Structure formats: C-alpha cells, structure tokens
C-alpha cells in the first residue's frame, strides 16, 4: 500500500472516530497515536477559534505517508453537502491507496461494514480499481497494479 506524504481527513462529527480508525487500520495503516488536541497553535493553523478536537494519526506501512483524522467537539462540525456525496462533488472527497490484492482488501473492509461505491473494474492491463465507502461516508480508492 502506498500513500501521499500527508493527507488530512475529518470525521464529520456525526459518529464514531473509533470506527473510522478501524477502517483505515483494516486497510493496512498503523495507528501512531490518538487523543485530544486543544493546542492553541492548531487554532491558528486551521483558522478556527476555541477548538476542542480528538485526532488520530495513522501511518502507511512503509512509513512514508500519513493520514490525520479529526473529530471536532468544538466548534461543532458542519456538513455543507450530502452525507454520501457522489465522486464528482467539489473538494477533497477521497484518497487512493495502492494494494496488492484488491479482492482481499475489499472483503476485509466489507466485513467492517464498508460497501463498494460501484464495482471493481479493470483499466486496460494496468490496474484493477474501485471506490469503497466506509464509516462516516469516507471514500477511499483502491488500485491493484497488474503485472
């Protein structure tokens, strides 16, 4: 599995940060740490005042990429779009991971309650691809490179 150097995601405040963490761990990521963050510097970084949030930092297995998840307690998280917005909705909607066995990863994620957005499709003789919707409407893309 590969990842970009750093991605920041957000639990939309409706549900369970633990379920979102479990989803990414099932993808093969490793939980580096989690806990409350009430650091004033974070407020300056994200441009919000009086912030109270829980964060979790997950690392891809090769150690070269990370995903930060955040659940806001204060100020209340807002959702400006549909919970399960389609892939063409503007904004950062998904990230994609390279996987060795797309069928096995999808099966593990489905056991955690995830669902395929469409279907697993082969792109030429290069990749097998799909999108999976997990807890809190998080969408991840999976790409298996064919030999």
Features:
five-stranded mixed β-sheet, alpha+beta, single chain, disordered N terminus, 147 residues, four-stranded mixed β-sheet, 18% helix
- Give the DSSP E fraction (strand runs of 2 or more residues): 35-45%
Describe the sheet with the most strands.
5 strands, mixed
Note the total helix count.
3
| Quaternary structure state of the chains depicted | single chain
Cα end-to-end separation: 16 Å
Instruction: Sum up the overall morphology in one term.
Output: globular
SSE order, as H and E?
A: EHEHEEEHEEEE
Helix content: 10-25%
- Number of strand segments: 9
Low-confidence stretches: 1-14
Mean pLDDT: 82
Radius of gyration: 16 Å
- Helix-strand makeup class: alpha+beta
Q: How would you portray this structure in words?
A:
The N terminus is likely disordered. Strand 3 and strand 4 form a beta hairpin. The strands form two sheets. Strands 5, 6, 7, 8 and 9 form a five-stranded mixed sheet that branches. Strands 1-4-3-2 form a four-stranded mixed sheet, with helices on one face. The chain has 147 residues and is of the alpha+beta class. It contains three helices and nine strands.
Short description:
This protein has 147 residues and is α+β, with helices and mostly antiparallel strands. It has helices at residues 17-26, 40-46, 102-111, and strands spanning 7-8, 30-37, 52-59, 66-74, 94-99, 115-116, 121-123, 127-133, 139-145.
